[in-house]
Amino acid sequence: MLKSITLQNFRNYKKSSFVFGKSIIVIGPNTAGKSNLIESIYLLSAGKSFRAEKDSQMVKIGHEMGRVRAKVLDIDLEVAVTVGEVAGVKAQYKRFFVNGVAKRRADFVGNLPCVLFSPQDLEIVAGSPGMRREFLDNVLEQTDRDYRIAVLGYTKALRQRNALLEFVKDGLPRKENEFEYWDSLVIRNGSVLTRKREEFINFLNESKKDILDFRIEYDKSVISRERLLQYRDAEGASGVTLVGPHRDDMFIFFEKDKSLKSFGSRGQQRLGVLQLKILELAYIKEKLGIEPLLLLDDVFSELDEGHINLILEIRDNQQTIITTTHEEFIPVKIKGKMEIVELSLNE
To answer: pTM of the entire structure?
Structure first.
C-alpha cells in the first residue's frame, strides 16, 4: 500500500526518502528517528500527529515548513506543516494534498488507513477518559467521512458555545437566541458521534477475542435539548458545556465484571490493548474492504516473547512496518522475510 515516503524538514530529518516493500523492520538506537518516521506515516493516514502537542513540533528546528510526501498505491499524498508569523502573530497550519490538489482534512483522511500500536497505547486502558475518546476517534475518522465531518462541526460548535457560557459565568446576561444556533449544531453533530461510537463498541463486544476476552460498557453522555436545559444553571456557573460526547468514556471489563483498569495487571492491560488493536484491524478491513497498514512502534519493549511472536505472525496479513532498538527480538526465520532499514544517530 505504502510504496515510498519523503521527509523534508520533518523532526530530525532534513531530507530523507524511504522505499517500502510489504514488511519492513526499522532498526536503530534511541533518538535516531524511528518514531519520527512512524509519526510521518501516521500523519499521512490521520492528518494529525499521535505524539505532538502542537503541529509546530513536527517541523525541524530552525525551519518554517516541514513536508511529508508519499506514494500510496497510485495516489500521491502530501502534508505540509507551516510555522511562522502572520501579521506579527505566531501561526501554524497544515495543508493537505491528494495528487497535488488541496483537500480538507475530512477529504484527505482515509487514503492510507493504518493501525498504530505503540507503548503509549497502554493508556487506552490505564489512562484518562480522553485517551479512550481519542482511540474511538482515531478508528472512526479513518473509516467514516460522516464521522470526520461531525467531529469538525461538533468541535467548532462546542468551542463557540463554551465561549458564550464563559460570558454568562462572568455575569453577563444569557442571550437565548445566541445559544439556539450552537445548541442545534452540538446536538446534531453530537448525536452522529454517539451513534457511530456505539456501533463500533458493539462490533468490539460481538467480535471473537483470542488474546483476552473482555466486554466494553459505553458510558455515553447523551446530548439533547432536554439535557442542556437540565444542566443550564450548572453550565452557567462553570462556563463550560457539561454534556455531550466530549465527556464520553468506555469501561473495559474482563473475567466477568472486573475492571481491566483497576484490577488488571500491567501484563493483562497490555493484552487488552493488543486485542483492541487486532480488532481495530478487523474493523477497518470490514468497513473499507482493504487491509490497513500496521505500524508497530517499539512494542517489543512492552511485550513478552510469546506475544511478540503473535504480533509477528499477524504481520503476514498486511503491510507492516516495525521499529525496534533490539534486533535480537526478531526471530531469524521472520527477519529473513522482511526488509531491514538501519538508522544511525546522524540520519
So the answer is: 0.89
How far apart are alpha carbons 111 and 148 in whole angstroms?
14
Name beta bridge partners: 117. 296
262-312 tens-digit pLDDT: 999 988 998 899 899 999 999 999 999 988 999 988 877 767 777 777 777
3-class secondary structure, 285: helix
Alpha-carbon distances, residue 61 vs 57, 68, 215, 312 (angstroms): 8, 16, 45, 36
Cα atoms in the 13 Å half-sphere on the side-chain side of 62: 4
- Amino acid making up residue 215: R
* E strand segments, the chain: 2-10, 13-19, 23-27, 65-72, 75-86, 89-98, 101-103, 114-117, 214-219, 249-254, 258-259, 293-297, 320-324, 339-342
Q: What is the pLDDT of residue 188?
A: 97
Beta strand pairing call for 114-117 and 320-324: unpaired
End-to-end CA distance of the chain: 25
Q: Which of 296, 312, 317 is nearest to 115 (CA)?
A: 296
Closest CA to 281 of 339, 202, 204, 211: 204
In contact, 278 and 211? CB cutoff 8 Å = yes
Domains contained in the chain, CATH given: 1-113+292-347 (3.40.50.300), 124-289 (1.20.1050.90)
- pLDDT under 70 in the chain at which residues? 85-92, 302, 315-316, 329, 331, 333, 345-347
- Contact between 148 and 141 (Cβ < 8 Å): yes
Give the burial class of 203: count Cβ atoms within 10 A of its Cβ; 0-12 exposed, 13-18 middle, 19 or more buried. middle
Instruction: Name the phi and psi angles at 312, rounded to 5.
Output: -65, -25
For residue 225, the 8-state DSSP code is H
